Amino acid sequence: MKLEWMREYRDVVEQLIKYCNVYAAAYKKEGIPGTDIPISYAQIQVIEYLLENEELHQNMKQIAMRLGITTSNFSKLVNKLEQKQLLEKFHTADNRKEVIIQVTEYGRRVYQEYSDYIYREHFSKMFEAAKDIPKECLPLIADMLGVPYKNANCKKKEPPVLIPIHKD
């Protein structure tokens, strides 16, 4: 039975699902080829985001929101990366609760090894396959791929159940 809801996007959806399944299976596993230490794609994404946005000096909550993960999971990732000496934590001078994280020099080297490998082995082939797509279409493709994320974060939040505090 052909699934009619996919319409002319059947091949795109099928490939996207395959990609997501492969990525999901590898996302938290430590052992990405191309680096000299055990590191996961989830951990690499944190380093990548920090390197791209280091001038913003965002706090951990802001970064977690931008990456689309919970602050709890983000904190666990940061702690692992700090243990591996890939990140450092800092307090701001005016607020000790405000924690800013930065990539260490070692973290930069590990990321460079990873990015060289991932480009050579994966993305260069993807970019080659996409070379005939007009550049003006790329924002449309990015928007299309962003829809599931936007929908996942637009769920209506139920109001909290309030329980009175009795003072004895």
UniProtKB/TrEMBL annotation:
One Gene Ontology molecular-function label: DNA-binding transcription factor activity
SUPFAM superfamilies: Winged helix' DNA-binding domain
GO BP term (any one): response to stress
HTH marR-type domain segment(s): 1-147
Signal peptide per UniProt: none
Xref: InterPro entries: HTH_MarR-typ, MarR/SlyA-like, WH-like_DNA-bd_sf, WH_DNA-bd_sf
The name this protein goes by in its record: MarR family transcriptional regulator
Organism of this sequence: Sinanaerobacter chloroacetimidivorans
